[in-house]
Amino acid sequence: MKNRIIPIFSWVVVAWTCKVFLSSLPYKFSGHPDTQHIFGTIGVWMQETIAPGLGQWFVEHGAVAVGMFELFASLLLLSPIAFWAVKKLNLVNKVPSRELVHTLGGLLSAGVMAGAMFFHLVTPLGIEVLHNGVSDGGSLFYAAVSIFILGLVLAAVNGAIVRRQHNENNH
Fold it and tell me: What is the pLDDT of residues 42-91, one digit of tens each?
């Protein structure tokens, strides 16, 4: 049972991360008013504090760009399922290990959420997003924090296995 704890934990983290990332994509890719408010608030802050052109780009394209990273992270995290299937069908002999993929996916997910946390904490967006008088109660920020922490843990526990396997194969 002990050797099954990390894979089960990993898949639970992957399920949570992909649920959050994939459920936000329709908002990011459709120009939903809440998404426009979030990325507009950040973009205006960027225009005033970093660079006008960068801020304007973020207003216009930031949601889709972030959504693309979240989609890629989700596909990466879920790819061990496809790798398992193509290997079971004898279509390929060697596929990346689940541990390696979840290490990389955890790092990517944590990186994307580090950006989200930064913008919540540093810009006028705030921890609790208010739009048209309605608060999200901080749910977006807390989801970002949870994925940031879990992504780092996912990378650490799976990365340790990858390193151990690498060392065993080289001795």
Answer: 999 999 999 999 999 999 999 999 999 999 999 999 999 999 999 999 99
Determine the pLDDT at residue 170. Answer: 81
Decide: residue 72, CB within 10 A, 0-12 exposed, 13-18 middle, 19+ buried: middle
Per-residue pLDDT reduced to its tens digit, 78-137: 999 999 999 999 999 899 999 999 999 999 999 999 999 999 999 999 999 988 889 999
CA 163 to the chain's CA centroid: 23
Contact 43, 66 (CB under 8 A): no
Interacting residues of 35 by C-beta distance below 8 A, sequence separation 6+? 27, 28, 63
Exposure of 72 in the CB half-sphere (CA atoms within 13 A) = 11
Instruction: Report which of 120, 106, 49 is spatially closest to residue 77, judged by C-alpha positions.
Output: 106
**Which among 115, 117, 140, 122 has a CA at the least distance from the CA of 130?**
140
Supply 84's token pair.
């398992």
Q: What whole-number distance in Å separates Cα of residue 117 and Cα of residue 148?
A: 9
